[in-house]
């Protein structure tokens, strides 16, 4: 490897294809909806979306790097492609990487963004390390869902940015099989389509992509769901029979409505 | 999805096949044997059963949700089958589920039971969530071994019920590919046959199914094993050579017998 | 299984092939280099080796048993082979095992050694348990990287020896599919060649095998890298633009050189 | 292994659990529907069922042993379970096997039956060999779909019974990990539920399980489909544009209706 | 499913995202180079590209549907994305599909094109069936490399279009998990980057993507290689020692040059 | 890549480790036993060995390249190891390869040898191509069992050497991840231990490794087995009940003995 000083800092990542690719401008998810989504678990979001006819929303593969992780935010997307030395490769490591979609997307992070990354679940690609996550955090990034691995895990954990990934590896992002290709484009992450500006809800169960156009309906439906589950939980703790209170039957639904009315009256 | 109130709570899960299927009555594992099994690790149980000629006892796949988990109990079994919309599906979510083997088996839980679940290691099926585990705990359930995933992991962890599973997912039990089919029947969990009333020993190494008819012989053999291992551990700490004391040779066995006699004498 | 006393302690593991196989004497990694390697992460080692033309150094599969694990040491190697009852098997469990390469290699452990084990990622083989790790620790062993599983995980965790493995299992080392065959030989662990006396650097990102002949060059290159990353981290925290300081451009490299000179002056 | 003569031919496969398990009597698929199904490909059956709301019908894993295989028939089911030496094992090979569900189900084969087998895709289990397939053929069996492997492949190919399986192996049915457990019961084959008496349609695309209660509707829908595809094929060969004739648009549908009327007139 | 006549043939595949996506115009591979490439095997192309510094060119996964398949052509690309009901799904099967990238790309096929398809190796997606391959063939398409499955395999085989795929399935293209999204865009097929207009060389060894800009150099290098291998083959048949003639040593290279000169002289 | 002429033909494959490694001299399997083994299928060999207490003999992974393949021979072994550029790599392709264990072992082939290769099932390694198989055939090699892939499949098929492999690839033997390391050593192929001089029996069911020391006993046992199966086949064709004649009961065994005596009398 060349020493750190004899570098050509103007290396474009590719002469064969204009890189990085940037998709069209997009609208971030509505702040108010994101706030209301805060109380909703990934599991409830996923179940409700399924009931609303959208069945493929749970990102397969990535798991929370830290137990107890949780994030809600607007999706920012990044797409890797297979590396090919005549187009783009990581031979010069960061000296090429700095001109790629990976560096570029980080410059567009806005507070609350969740970066969602298509990396094909590669076990050889450490998409993010300490320095990049540090920079992501400084710009206000809220979380990262990567269908691939991360590196510098010990240091990354200290930064406290919630991350969902398929594991850790000592490899850097373009060391082996993949190369950062495009951002602000539709991506496939863990078998799920994610458009820029979709809502991401992720916790210990995994990450769920909520289509932007379905978010409001979901929030309204899910709030009711979370409420009656609180009531059911109470009754089960008191010794009630499961099928009477979970889910609510017409009878227990009526009972719940009365209970909630009382609760609301008390709180006023 | 229909709103929560327009439900038909009498939906039978299937008109094509009488569900849920319930197996014959069975005898739970002997309480005294369970108590003696408490001191025996999954590893020792598995090794001893292998020595006794039963070689396929370690459930492949499920791992402890929490480090340090441990349970011994009598097996209660539940079996999922692939979902098929003309027979049984989860389209109406809990409103159908409440009439399935999943709800049914929970009503039969007795204190100390370990629920063992055949779910084919499905990555799309969250067999248990917060409400079900909560109910299981309230009925005295001791632990769950599921060859599949769970959901609501954050809340489930708080409940403290030891669980072995193949991961977490936001999906509910019958959201995608499987449906709760039968209980109190022989099942295949992680490549191991489990009959109702077998003994389950699970810890950080994984779950072992001890055939009910082999449990007493195992306990007796394993108690001796755990005892001489204590002695070997002592000698190794004192600097002895591994192959002299692990496993015991005839010489060190004799030495151990004397040591144990002394220990017993001291304790009297 | 025979009872613990009717054993033939002189069972040779095999009459068909002279076991255990021991490779030629080898030189352990240089102590001074190991000391300097202490400050270098697995990720930096792996990236630098890649830059130096050695691309296959990160052991695929094994992960740290405990978050926060870290070790640097000289590689001691152990190789399993598939079990075959006419050559060598674990039917008599430890009474045969004690004459195998597994017991033998433990007798050769020197302080600081890292044991690297070829076990084909087997999910059925618990290569090490409490007693063996205990003995390994007593002899000063620094860590274990095993392309296979371990058993007695709860007790092993308490011992505090850093271990990288592919999981846990209740099976003992020769219970099922593999048998300890050779030591002090070149091995294939997680797709990486490891020669006796190579340097192992392992942390939360995984384990990296540093060829002995590349260790000095790596150390020198990596120390500079770790230094300028400290500087970059500082600048990024102050709000600098990522691509100006990570990696260093010619400009920021010059700035860094001045900064380091000042730091060094201050420390004197 | 004992010689062939010192056998106990009355060995029941298990003293722990009454084996083999036989499910309730069932009705075979209607002969007339089976005949009409003959013209329908697995692909058309699967697509139409999906359109009818049954989405999980294509058996994942098993492929045709011979290119050009094709079968339609009524499902006869067989279920393997994990082997456990205290319950049932293959140590005595065929001398135990002859009392199992595998031998038993073969005695119930009727002409035209397709045997569908749950064997968990095991790579270690050769569910059928030359002798069993030979017997199956003699009784008029039409085909076998096994989510597992077969043995004696060279001889089995000569018999000409169409078989879908996950591969070949030298192992016999109960040599290693599984044991024949039950027949005439609902099974899970390649992720698909199969009830006794369902219709099996299998060809080079794989095997599809058609629910008995959906077969008539499917046949009617599919016959029309196969007909208009013939017409589309004709038009495409003549140079028409794909989206004008595949699938039919309202215009080309009308054209097709006229064409078919003409064809029918000509045939009279 | 609706009957074939009550269809809305103007369904756009998506109101949420403008589909299908079409990439920029591209140049097809040079016809003369394609002609010269005809004599070069996939193995030689892959080895030579590796020697030229391009290491990731062999598409992993897809294999030849028919033994003896072989194609050389200019790449036409098609990309699937995960299905999401709010964006695009296959519920109405072909009535939606006809407006997708799958139908669209087929209208752009030119004689000699090889269609390369990104379908993530999905086992649930039959990207092409009889009708589509038929149409592809009619337009002069030379071959198909699909990192996914096909359906109607029996009929497709009869068409004689060489196809590399990961298997067969009864599912149609958008029946389950994927949806045709874009064409004329860079794609990732079996871990390899393919740009529109690259050269595809595929045979029984699999498919190799030759970067357009490397094709000429490759052809020249490979022609020499194929020539001297003919000579080596001759010598080995005559009984020569392998390492003297494969590969050529300086001595045998000189011998080969003389032999070739003679051959050329004879041919004039 | 350098042109074919500027090569250093004396490159030793490694300066770090003395390559190739060659194991000790070994005895080939007995010719008479090999001849008698000719009538025995892989399935019968595997079943009988299991009955004789050797349970792990069927090589997992490799399948016959051509349907109808069959070989019996004495095992010659070759072992690959992961490639590491400082030790040994394929950068210079055949110019290095010719000094490796791959070329070396081919020079030791004797008529009737079956080459068994440990290549970890790698999908990136084409262990053998046209030229090497051609040379192998010329030296009288009988077959190849490789736990990895081959290349030049079209030409290799024409050579007619029976080959069991895990697939095909355009990659050459040391192009990517592995390097030929040793020969005449014990190897692990598809989870099975193979010693030099063991007997290999391979057919459409796969390859079985028969321990040299067990071959005679196996032959004797298997010959009887093949004989009575002929008788059983006859009876089944005549309409007998499966469990009466497969396997033989004491009654049908007696009947068989008489039948065989008659047959023998007739043949004299």
What does this structure look like?
The structure is a homohexamer of 268-residue chains. The first copy, chain A, is an alpha/beta fold. Helix content of chain A is 33%, strand content 21%. Chain A has helices at residues 31-37, 42-51, 94-97, 101-106, 130-138, 153-159, 215-237, 242-245, 250-267, and strands spanning 21-22, 63-64, 71-82, 113-118, 126-128, 143-146, 149-150, 163-165, 178-183, 187-189, 192-194, 199-203, 206-210. In chain A, helix 2 (42-51) crosses helix 7 (215-237) and helix 7 packs across helix 9 (250-267). The relative contact order of chain A is 0.20. The D-F interface holds D 1-2, 4-5, 7, 9, 93-95, 98-99, 103, 106-107, 123, 126, 129-132, 134-135, 138, 151-154, 157, 167-172, 175-176 and F 41-43, 45-48, 50-52, 55, 57-58, 60, 63, 67-68, 70, 203-206, 208, 221, 224-225, 228-229, 232-233, 236-237, 239, 241-243, 246-250, 253.
Helix content of chain A: 25-40%
Oligomer: homohexamer
The helix-strand sequence of chain A is EHHEEHHEEHEEHEEEEEEHHH
Major pleated sheet of chain A? 9 strands, mixed
Distance between the termini of chain A: 69 Å
What is the count of β-strands of chain A? 13
Which overall shape of chain A is indicated by the principal axes computed on the Cα atoms? Answer: elongated
* Low-confidence segments of chain A: 1-10
> What value does the Rg of chain A take, in angstroms?
22 Å
Strand-pairing-aware structural class of chain A: alpha/beta
Q: How many separate helices of chain A?
A: 9
The largest contact between protein chains, plus residue counts on each side, is: B-C, 43 and 37 residues
Provide the β-strand percentage band of chain A: 15-25%
The average pLDDT score of chain A comes to 92
